[in-house]
Design brief:
The longest helix has 105 residues. The termini are far apart. Helix content is 95%, strand content 0%. By secondary structure, it is mainly alpha-helical.
């Protein structure tokens, strides 16, 4: 009888070991599935972030490129205003300068 109890005990241990292997295997599979899911979600988040950063970068490039045209226009306008102001101021004093030069050239000191 003891041998049957021993056989039954061994059989119970083998059954328990198989159940434990199934539990460990199931847990390992679930862990792998969770890791794969986390990896997929992380890749999606990275792709979304990358596309947002790329869009922001493209916007900044287009703004800087577009604003360079307006900057050039602004500089041209400012340059034209300064040229007109210089032309106006030189035309106002040019007669006085010519008269002053003529006075010094034509006067002879002995």
């Amino acid at each position: 009888m003891d041998s049957f109890k021993g056989q039954g005990g061994i059989q119970m241990l083998l059954t328990a070991e198989q159940e434990a292997q199934h539990i460990v295997s199931s847990a390992r599979n679930m862990k792998m599935a969770r890791l794969k899911q986390a990896k997929d979600e992380a890749e999606k988040e990275v792709a979304l972030y990358r596309s947002q950063m790329e869009a922001e970068y493209q916007n900044k490039i287009s703004e800087s490129t577009g604003s360079s045209g307006s900057t050039v226009k602004k500089l041209e306008d400012e340059t034209d205003r300064k040229i007109k102001a210089l032309t106006k101021s030189t035309s106002m004093v040019s007669k006085e300068i010519v008269d002053l030069l003529m006075k010094h050239i034509t006067s002879v000191k002995i």
